[in-house]
Amino acid sequence: MSPETRRFLNTSLKIGNRSISGRLIVCPMAGYTHVAFRQLLEYFGGYGLCFTEMCSATSLPNENPMHSLVFRWRREELDRLSCQIFGSDPGIMAEAARRIESSGFFGVDINFGCSVATVCKRGAGAALLKTPGAAVSVVEAVRSAVSIPVTVKYRTGWSDDAGFAAEMGRRFEGAGADALIFHPRVAPDRRTRPPRRDYIGRVKDTVGIPVFGNGDIFDENDLERMVETTGCDGVAIGRIALANPWMPARMTSGLMEDNALYRFTAERYMALLEQHFEPVTALRRFRKWALFFSAGFRFGHRFSADIRRAGDMGAARDVIGRFFDAYPERNARPNMNLFR
User: Fold this and answer.
1) Is 232 noted as a catalytic residue in this protein?
2) What is the per-residue DSSP string for 44-105?
3) Which of 114, 153, 201, 279 could form a disulfide with 181 if both were Cys (CB 3.0 to 4.6 A apart)?
4) Residues 27, 83, 114, 232: which is the catalytic one?
């Protein structure tokens, strides 16, 4: 990565009435960016902002952080943590946003990007892009409810139309959004086609608020091309941060990696999961994460299968030990058959 790009990533950026220390952020990912993973991510650092898992606006006002699997945090991370919510009712979204602000979060993020059927059937997530006026009303309601930064994560829409994506960015800005996280894929396309990164430039040219580009950033070269070709104000990474939680530090400061780092990461993550969750949940979340982690290795599918068969965390630790004792060969880029 060029020194210029690295300096860019390490430059602060104002979002609404607050600032982040760097322009590389880690996307919200349902089932993954929970409190244990975020603590692992924080150990390595390198990012300016992180997000919770996607939280239901309907449930959030009554969630107990001591027991909730998703609305849980550590006090020391709140100054660089936004809470993402989904829902379709402006009043309910506003109420959830007020709870987020009162809890001390950096900001609130509105999900217009999730295209999972269970979310879209409720008229939330990417489904709201089918009714642009309703989506704008949600942003307006949240903006009116809180003073902290409001960000919007959204996709191109339900058809491949850069003009629509740019127009929605303009309307979200008009409704009070302080920044946009734009994933240039149509909603029905989970990841079967490459993202249209030129669309990020279209959105950037249309609005005056910061735009974070998102989609298929797997190494420093991908990130550099994103910055150079789109003019984005920052970059949002997702799956690669799951596979390599040190990736933000590698991209921003040149952290070197080796098998010892991989082994430390797996073992540290297991300990954090056990610290924050009861045993069944901890094991389930480790198995889920291991699929991404294993994508970094040749024959990683065998490693992932062994983790899935582990009956408890002790057995999973044994798998980790045997795997790294054999000095596994790493892939230059993730195995996309596993990296999904």
Assistant:
1) no
2) H---SBEEEEEEETTTGGG--TTT-SSS---GGGGGGEEEEEE-S-HHHHHHHHHHHHHHT-
3) 153
4) 114
